[in-house]
Amino acid sequence: MSHFPVTSSILSKTHLNNLLVEQYNLPQDSQTSLLKAGVNHTYLVKSGDANLVFRLYSLDWRTLTDINEEIRLLDFLNDSSITVSHAVKDAKGDYIQQLEAPEGLRYGVMFTYVEGEKLHNSPEELHYKIGALMGQMHVITQNLKIDRVTYTPKVLLHDPLEALKQYLQPGNELDFMQSAQKHLLQEIENADTTNIRTGVVHLDIWFDNIAVSKEGAISIFDFDFCGNGWLCLDVAYYVLQLHSLERDQAVCDSKVKNFLEGYESVTPLSAEEKRLLPHLGVALYFFYLGVQINRFDNWSNTFFNEAYVKRFVTVLVKRYYDMYLLTETTPN
């Protein structure tokens, strides 16, 4: 065996830069640097006076169909005047690069770079504008369908809990997650779907995937989790993140109010969609905890253990669940 097999690798930025210069016909003095390594590896490409972003997908994370559908969605949104980071073709007119990494074939896509800052602590008026932008996007993606994942109860709740059992021994935390799952599944099953809009969702809109320019223009990027589902999933996730980031309850409530008002200045939320927001928020906690578990090798971390999972369940999931008194209607 000449090389020991690996499950995840970080490619040489020097050699990747050489490849990108050749494939995209970039200036020879272009520079590529790693911004973030996770399920995807994100590189900043400085090319003359312009910046680009190259996303390198982890092994078996997305199929060619998944990636092509994301690219198609981004082109559609960009053509519809929604400011997003969209894919860039190489010199041959192709969007997707195929790289033979040590672990196997990995795909890569170059994206436009959106100017602006990620604002961890944003003023209330900005949340109104973000809500309006999400509303505009949903008007465009309502009733649209792409050939990617559909966010069903199985994807959001069933599969993550099965994965979670690898890290949680029987006890209070697992008992809570099983009880919460049962309640959430019942709420989703009993939902009045005639008053719930469906279409294509981003599923990861929060401050880390939003850029705000000095002039106040807002851009959305990283549609890696885009798929089909209830549009209010995006709303629920943003509200969830506000609760996670803003610990002052009065300030948090005001920001949530501004965000929802901004959204409804463009398109209304039905009473049923509003009712379901906290339930769907908790369901998304389940989903993303499942992602962390199932893609453990990509994070290369030492903190992901039973103690971490217990804190995640208690400090984040259960706190948000109890905040809306969902326990009062949890079935026995």
From TrEMBL:
<dbReference type="InterPro" id="IPR050249">
    <property type="entry name" value="Pseudomonas-type_ThrB"/>
</dbReference>
<protein>
    <submittedName>
        <fullName>Aminoglycoside phosphotransferase</fullName>
    </submittedName>
</protein>
<dbReference type="Pfam" id="PF01636">
    <property type="entry name" value="APH"/>
</dbReference>
<feature type="domain" description="Aminoglycoside phosphotransferase">
    <location>
        <begin position="40"/>
        <end position="239"/>
    </location>
</feature>
<comment type="similarity">
    <text>Belongs to the pseudomonas-type ThrB family.</text>
</comment>
<dbReference type="InterPro" id="IPR002575">
    <property type="entry name" value="Aminoglycoside_PTrfase"/>
</dbReference>
<keyword id="KW-0808">Transferase</keyword>
<dbReference type="GO" id="GO:0019202">
    <property type="term" value="F:amino acid kinase activity"/>
</dbReference>
<dbReference type="InterPro" id="IPR011009">
    <property type="entry name" value="Kinase-like_dom_sf"/>
</dbReference>
